Amino acid sequence: DELEGGDLLDKTQWPVSLDAAEHTRRAVYLYVKRSFLFPMFNTFDAPDAALSCGRRQSTTVAPQSLALLNGHLIQRQARALAGRLIRERGDDPAAWIERAWMLALGRLPGAAEKQKNLEFLEALEKADPAGWVPEDAGPVSTARAAALAKLALAVFNLNEFVYVD
User: Fold this and answer.
1) CA gap 113, 107 in Å, rounded
2) pLDDT per 10-residue tile (average), the chain, 165 residues
3) What is the pLDDT of residue 25?
4) CA distance 28 to 126
């Protein structure tokens, strides 16, 4: 057996899920190799894998904000959220906003927040949709689906989403 103690390894204990949505679980479940550190972890102050860390320092630096706006992972998740909102709520921008806030923040938007989001969504529909259209946009126009993905990105960048108070 290639693994030391390989006969003791229970491969059924933590099987890989066939559901792709389950593949984006929390990083606490990831195998960390000291010679290969994930760039996103370094951006967000991952602790040194070789040392015990009872308490971590908190920092906020420009690369973190840039990663949350321009990173492939966050943009992919924004498109995925947009696709989910379209599947669940059809072509209803007000319902999209309420559901997005509930999923991301655990609360509904206030009246002023909802109105600003609707105005933002309308303005985004005029922008170039290239690279922002969710795979499962369904009956929604390309421009509208891309605008929703960009709105989802904005929700992911709210302080309320990023920081735990």
Assistant:
1) 12
2) 49 68 64 72 73 74 85 91 94 97 97 98 91 85 94 95 83
3) 63
4) 40
- pTM tops 0.70: yes
Report H helices in the chain: 39-43, 62-70, 72-89, 93-105, 111-124, 142-156, 159-162
The count of other CB atoms within 10 Å of the CB of residue 125 is 17
Return the domain boundaries, the chain.
62-162
Give CA–CA dist 79/85, Å, rounded. Answer: 10
Pair 132, 162: CB distance under 8 Å: no
Element counts in the chain: helices (H) and strands (E) = 7, 0
